[in-house]
C-alpha cells in the first residue's frame, strides 16, 4: 500500500487470520486518502458497526445485489460513507456509544484485541503486533472480561473465537 496510490481498498472482514479492524489501523498510517469498503458475508449488525467505527468508509454485504456493491464503491470514492439503511439507523441512534445496543460496549482498541484473541494469538503476540506493552494488552483483556461478564481469560478467548466464527459466515 505504501508503494501504490490506491483510491479504494475493498476488504473482507477476515484477512489472513486477522480482522479488518487491525488492517484499518495500518491503512490510516499510510499517507494519502485511501478509503476502505468492507465487503463481507459477516453480519452487518454485528461487525459493520465496529468496522465503520474503526475507520471503514463503508460496509456492504456479500448478499447485496451487484448494483448495490457498485453504488457503495462509487459513494465511497465520492468521499461519502456507505452503509445500509438498518446500519445507518444504528449509527444514528448510537452515535456516542461504543457498540450497537445488542453488543458489549467495547472501545475500538478492545475490539481489536478481542478479535486478535479470537484468532488464538497470545497476549505477547498481540502486544508485539500492535506495538504496545504486554501489560496494556492484559489490562484491555481484563476490561473486556468485565464488560462481557466472563470469569477468566480463557472465557474471553472462547467468546472472541465464537464471535469471529459467527462474524465470518461466507456467502
Descriptive notes:
- With 171 residues, this protein is mostly helical.
- It folds into two domains: 8-93, Rossmann fold (3-Layer(aba) Sandwich), CATH 3.40.50; 108-167, Winged helix-like DNA-binding domain superfamily/Winged helix DNA-binding domain (Arc Repressor Mutant, subunit A, Orthogonal Bundle).
- Helices cover 53% and strands 11% of the residues.
- The chain is built from eight helices and five strands; from the N terminus they run E-E-E-H-E-H-E-H-H-H-H-H-H.
- The chain has helices at residues 20-29, 44-53, 66-77, 85-93, 108-118, 123-130, 134-148, 153-167, and strands spanning 8-11, 14-15, 18-19, 35-40, 58-61.
- The protein has a three-stranded parallel beta sheet with strand order 1-4-5, with helices on both faces. It has a two-stranded antiparallel ribbon with strand order 2-3.
- Helix 5 crosses helix 7 (134-148) and helix 6 (123-130) packs across helix 7 (134-148).
- It is globular.
- The protein starts with 7 loop residues before the first strand and ends with a helix.
Amino acid at each position: 500500500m505504501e508503494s501504490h496510490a490506491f483510491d479504494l481498498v475493498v476488504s473482507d472482514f477476515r484477512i489472513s487470520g486477522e480482522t479488518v479492524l487491525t488492517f484499518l489501523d495500518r491503512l490510516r498510517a499510510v499517507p494519502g486518502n485511501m478509503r476502505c469498503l468492507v465487503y463481507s458475508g459477516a453480519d452487518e449488525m454485528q461487525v459493520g458497526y465496529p468496522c465503520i467505527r474503526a475507520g471503514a468508509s463503508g460496509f456492504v454485504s456479500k448478499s447485496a445485489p451487484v448494483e448495490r456493491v457498485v453504488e457503495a464503491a462509487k459513494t465511497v470514492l465520492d468521499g461519502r460513507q456507505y452503509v445500509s439503511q438498518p446500519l445507518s439507523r444504528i449509527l444514528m441512534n448510537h452515535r456516542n456509544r461504543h457498540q450497537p445496543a445488542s453488543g458489549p460496549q467495547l472501545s475500538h482498541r478492545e475490539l481489536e484485541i478481542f478479535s486478535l484473541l479470537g484468532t488464538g494469538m497470545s497476549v505477547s503476540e498481540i502486544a508485539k503486533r500492535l506495538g504496545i506493552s504486554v501489560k496494556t494488552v492484559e489490562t484491555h483483556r481484563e476490561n473486556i472480561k468485565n464488560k462481557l461478564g466472563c470469569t477468566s481469560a480463557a472465557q474471553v478467548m472462547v467468546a472472541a473465537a465464537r464471535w469471529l466464527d459467527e462474524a465470518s459466515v461466507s456467502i
